[in-house]
Amino acid sequence: MNIGYVESPIGLIEIRASETHIQKVSLVFQKGLIKENELTKKACLEIQEYFDGKRKEFDLELEFSGTPFQNKVWKELQRVFYGEVVSYQELARRIGGKNFARAVGGAVHRNPFLLIVPCHRVVGSHGLGGFACGTSTKKFLLEHERNI
Questions:
Q1: How confident is the model at residue 147 (pLDDT cuts 50, 70, 90)?
Q2: Which of 77, 119, 123, 141 is the catalytic position?
Q3: How many of the other CB atoms lie within 10 Å of CB of 105?
Q4: 119 has catalytic annotation
Q5: Which domains can be identified in the chain, with CATH numbers?
Q6: Can you give the pTM of this predicted structure?
Q7: What is the per-residue pLDDT across 95-137, written as a single tens digit (0 to 9) for each?
């Protein structure tokens, strides 16, 4: 397992990768073992560029390891562009069933690729909705994307 870290405005971000794919991107409270490879270094650089306002899309190979439904949701999330927001119901409609909004919400909540698969761009029909890293972080990310 290769692990790298990047300090960001939302906290310490940990990147875990195999030799060929990014496996997880998440917020952590402290650094653990650092064992970087080219993928973790590239991910750290791209995340820093995102926060510096120089990157709107990520170019990283991801290893999706959820259920087939979760993987479908996460791949569709990658089509939600920088600065755009969609509702859970709209995301459900995009994958084939507007009645899947609750299931889509569950898959979005389990997204293992913070920022890279932009779950922060999914909002509730009556407001921000939830976010695994907290609604203040979600609000910060949405405002960051609107102001660049």
A1: confident
A2: 119
A3: 20
A4: yes
A5: 2-51 (no CATH), 68-147 (1.10.10.10)
A6: 0.91
A7: 987 788 889 999 999 999 999 999 999 998 777 777 777 788 8
